[in-house]
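Model it.
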Amino acid sequence: MPDLPELSRAEVLEQLAAALARLELPARVAIDGPDAAGKTTMVDELEKLLGEPVVRVSGDAFLRPKRERYRRGRESPEGYYEDAFDHAAFRASVAEAVGLVLVDGVFLFREELDDLWSYRVFVEISEEESLRRGARRDRLLHSSREAAEHLYRVRYLPAQRMYHARVEPRDRADIVVVNESPAEPRLMVRRGEQLPDA
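Modeled.
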């Protein structure tokens, strides 16, 4: 997957918005990536740039009840990957949407969901950055930042490793946005994919 020339964040988003705008409708766009990669922020920015009505769906809106998503234990990475989300309800919501549909979430390219997508974007960050951002974001949900970091180390990051081993989401993406530094993201495209001039 070749790197494109270095671009500013605004230019990266303009290129990505232009690629989405040329999709034949209806089009369902998956914006996948690890926890705290910046997926929702990116969809917010893309929606503004597209300048036309889009349908938004977020995987986070389809969390199962606690008794189901934690049935293997609060710290289980398998529990996060297998039990956290109601895939049937999520599938139905995405399938019913019409027009240009932007969907953000984790594990979107998994086998049960992968046939939904017209276009796949993977937002990539390192495990260390996911841990840093996620613990900062989630510290209020837990007793402390240390408790949030612990959950990332034992639940969220191992679940992402499991996903990568099973699905190889980076290789399935049409576009990868390396978002390690949000001010200076890098854009990579699948071989043969041409981005229009923004």
